[in-house]
Amino acid sequence: MGMVRWEPGARERLQAAAMDLYISRGYEKTTAADIAQAVGLTERTFFRHFADKREVLFSGQELLEQAILEALAAAPQGAAPLDMVASALSALAAFFPVERRVHSRRRQTIISANPALQERELLKMAGLAAVVAAALRARGVSGSTATLAAESGVTVFSVAFGKWIAEGEERSFLDIQREVLGELLAMTAGAA
Amino acid sequence: MGMVRWEPGARERLQAAAMDLYISRGYEKTTAADIAQAVGLTERTFFRHFADKREVLFSGQELLEQAILEALAAAPQGAAPLDMVASALSALAAFFPVERRVHSRRRQTIISANPALQERELLKMAGLAAVVAAALRARGVSGSTATLAAESGVTVFSVAFGKWIAEGEERSFLDIQREVLGELLAMTAGAA
DNA sequence: GTCTATAGTGCGATAGAC
DNA sequence: GTCTATCGCACTATAGAC
User: Fold this and answer.
1) Predicted model pTM
2) Could A148 and B86 be called an inter-chain contact, meaning their C-beta atoms sit closer than 8 Å?
């Protein structure tokens, strides 16, 4: 139990401190130096861990992409594009267990209040859609159909996420997502 | 014909100069001062016209929103959500006549090369989707179905836009958009 | 770790149009 | 006199370069 030069988990502590400050003071009124100072580090160190002030709220993307790719790889050969997307969506649900709902809600509150953060979130979602579309194309789905299926998947995910974090909502992410996918199918089936 | 204190159309001249510089030097290597100087203005004046360096590439959004709202208002009462969306999409096609294809292509080349610009574009698209969704809700479409229909509309628009500016493409924006909407319907109809 | 360029803001001054 | 477009200057924070 000697003096350690630096506590481990700097990245995680920075993320936690950022969320707290973004909530208490607001995102724009919080400087990178504020966040670093809150955990005993320097501004320079903050930017070593995160490319910019927004990125501190958006990590873990790689894990989602990996889960998506595994789910798509496991889908039966010759499955319909939207069925493959549905498999990927089910795989994502594992990342949103009940225990995470409070954290997700806090995080979304911050993002909803700041256009700059919304931009970053949209870019991340677009990145997920691109990954899905590329995987579908690799499985033989035609170019634009792959994009349409992938974007539809992201839309279903986003709408389901919004419902999942709604106040008073009790159902699991998976159940909600299934319902939303059903709504999408009903909606498209109802057009002339 | 005396010396005027300032030439009219500052905004438009700044937009044109920005596109030229973003292409010749790259977006990141172009400063706001560069753009302003190119049209005989100061950096401070640039920021009076545009909230930030990205925004100079994204104006005219209001016109699109207005056209969308008019199209949705004109749609027959009780129409299916996706049919109303299709009306809105048709109205948008008027903004993309053949003459504009070269300009659109140049602009998209710049955006595609810069994540910061992609973020802004995604935010603008999300704004369009929100407008559509709100209008659908006002016409009695249920909350999540309205969002799903609106987002699907934006996806169709984006995919169609990408095809329209593709090298060698000759068809009208409207024709391409109709085709993409058909692909979307076929894709969703093919799921289990 | 320090140094620096750039983005973006706030405020006061100027000068013509109405 | 008021309104609008512009300039000029000082300032902070971000982010990248050294």
Assistant:
1) 0.97
2) no
